[in-house]
């Protein structure tokens, strides 16, 4: 039976420059772990990615926390954990291409404590995206807001990651900086931005708090991007590219996020975008299928909804990328229903769940005790929907081979490690 040594922990290691032994493993830098009935959840900050790890991998995580050697039988799974940046290693990290499940899983396991909470730094935004998921909340909350109340509610939500979002966080740098300083340390942080504003003054705070930057870009075709994400005064595509350039110079871990709609879900266009991202040095890409939330729930959003074949198109994209071993991590979120899967704290500190049919419903607020907040999350959030959102659940039914196992590790391996990898992660239909 697996020994659980901590409930939640953050271990910063693996960046010391010392040679790393996989027989005496340690967690990699910026990795957070949490015990779960199936083993562990691991969040890798550098990739902005969650992995569910079964009881076999859990033995390695336990050993890493206790600083004790692993048994020889666990070395193969330790290598898998090292390849995905969970366990520290000298070299040999691999791109995960949609892999979220490590070990013996038939499906995404349900999770009854939140993984992610989205926190509004502000309800203001200079863009008018045609599908804006937050439009209803922004209209409801206007220009007011209090980030201390947002932080208070976020602290009561037992999520591993807080996404600082809005609105556009760059529209109110003062609030964004304050929210970062309030939440840093307690949770891993991600900053969502469209690049519509000046990122530069925020860079020191992002670096100090090791914030992962997520930049919205729907297409490298500037005209198409700006049609989907129109800015009031400037091109949103230009702002996004400027943000990516600054992040690269500052060495910030960065993801590009793309909302997949009927306007950009073409198979070839997505492949071109992937290739353009790689050429631009982007190493993490998350694709969100358009969900009928906010503006997208209304008649204007209906025309943008991707068709029924889009999940398969996205699974194909991931599968091709895995087979070609392309240097880009890809994650896909659900594409059709919000499915009570997302938690959002508005700019006044109220906690909302995006409900299937009723839009955003308030479930808790600032000052509510943590046990009540967790009970509200459990009452309103779908354990399978929430887990699926962050663990590539929407493409699992398309058999992209997104479970990494150690079936034949240890046998013949090519010099670049590719042979072994393909046996671990077997893309198939
Ligand atoms: S940038 Fe975000 S908040 Fe602003 S309009 Fe677009 S989707 Fe809505």
UniProtKB/TrEMBL annotation:
Superkingdom per UniProt: Bacteria
Keyword Hydrolase set for record: no
Lipid biosynthesis among keywords: no
Disordered: region residues: 410-429
Domain Radical SAM core stretches: 111-337
MF-aspect GO terms: catalytic activity; iron-sulfur cluster binding; metal ion binding
PROSITE patterns: RADICAL_SAM
Cross-referenced InterPro entries: Aldolase_TIM (IPR013785), Radical_SAM_PqqE_MftC-like (IPR050377), rSAM (IPR007197), rSAM_sf (IPR058240)
One family name in Pfam for this protein: Radical_SAM
SUPFAM superfamilies in alphabetical order: Radical SAM enzymes (SSF102114)
Keywords: Iron, Iron-sulfur, Metal-binding, S-adenosyl-L-methionine
Start-end of Basic and acidic residues biased regions: 415-429
PANTHER family: RADICAL SAM DOMAIN PROTEIN (PTHR11228), TUNGSTEN-CONTAINING ALDEHYDE FERREDOXIN OXIDOREDUCTASE COFACTOR MODIFYING PROTEIN (PTHR11228:SF34)
Name this protein carries in UniProt: Radical SAM core domain-containing protein
Species this chain originates from: Virgisporangium aurantiacum
